[in-house]
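Much of our argument rests on the idea that a fold can be written as discrete symbols. Part of our work consisted of pairing the sequence of a single chain with a tokenised description of its backbone. We regard such an encoding as a compact summary of how the chain folds. The amino acid sequence and the backbone structure tokens for this protein are reproduced below.
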Amino acid sequence: MIAYATFGLLGLLSLSIPVGIVLFLLGFGLDIFFTPFPLMRGLGNLVWSTSNNPTLIAIPFFVLLGEILVRSGIATRTYAALDRWVSWLPGGLVHANVATATMFSATSGSSVATAATVATVAMPQAEKLGYDPRLFSGAIAAGGTLGIMIPPSINLIVYGFLTQSSIPKLFLAGLVPGVGLALAFMAVTVILCLLRPSLGGTRRVFPLAQMLRALVQLIPIILLFAAIIGSIYKGWATPTEAASVGVAGALLIAALFGTLNRDVLGQSLLGTVKITAMIMLVVIGASFLNFTLAAAGLGNELQTMLGNLGLSPMGTIFVIVGIYIVLGFFIETLSLMVVTIPIVVPLVVAQGFDPIWFGILMIVLIEMALITPPVGLNLYVVQGARQGGRMSEVMVGAAPYALTMLAMAGLLIAFPQIALFLPNAVQ
């Protein structure tokens, strides 16, 4: 059955059928051939119970928050401000790409939205200032991946929903690895530009007065992040309530900057509906597929297969990491998560590993899938914003950052406290 499910999934995806529909079709097929009773009769109840879960209500709020920040021009102001603070480093404006992605990730929750925002703002500067197009675009694609690690993260919300894990703990666990990855990206950029100065373009140093004035543009984003995350950890709000507070804060910031109008609000709401509909179709389809797989006994089959291999707990983790790396080349990231989580996480927990820690390890591997061809979404987002040049340039530029993510995965396996320190400290 494992082979049928795997080849069925890959075969349907190769036909360019929307991912959510693929999950439903695969569930129907497995139900007909491998389960003893017709699960489709309970499809309506399953769809309703999945979509009615209060945890998932946070998703459209966080999507709307990001849309408002993009449409109202706040992201452009943030980029310009960070340019004045980090462009003196070897690599110059490349660091502004990573820093802006980091700050935008702390409010948007979406990697694709983060990459698209930074790419739209930054790309016009690349040719003007003489930056190597490979490194410049690769850094944007890599920085965008931080959107699913640094809280609030839509993917962490989905992981918490599917595994019944604490979302506030997942948010805390993702903070140190997320910031660590951002700093590692900047360190890699510095090293590359010291070795080959031609990659980094012109380093610029701004007067202190300009740098201090630029802080005014950063304060609203910092306060917004503090309000969202602080309200969750102080116990004043659930993640869903905190997301709604974030939307109100984003509207207030846009109004104060004078960029809130009917068009901005309408485009933000329309974008939110489109993105949320896509996410929910995938989540509901995955819930039905996972229900079918459980009824067909796939979990027991996998446990038996791994038991016959005679692997140690750490050996099992390495096998799972290898599987995620390979699947990440071919399957879209959210789909990869929702399809595998209900199957893999029980196996990991049975081996004695912490589900919060594994969630962060999985997110790092999912991040890497966003910038590895042929299906790395952020690569296509950045290439689309470039409006010229070869796709291979973005792939080559992102390669050093993908290796950095792999190194972070290794650190998380060797030192689990990197992810667990903050959740345990808050307890």
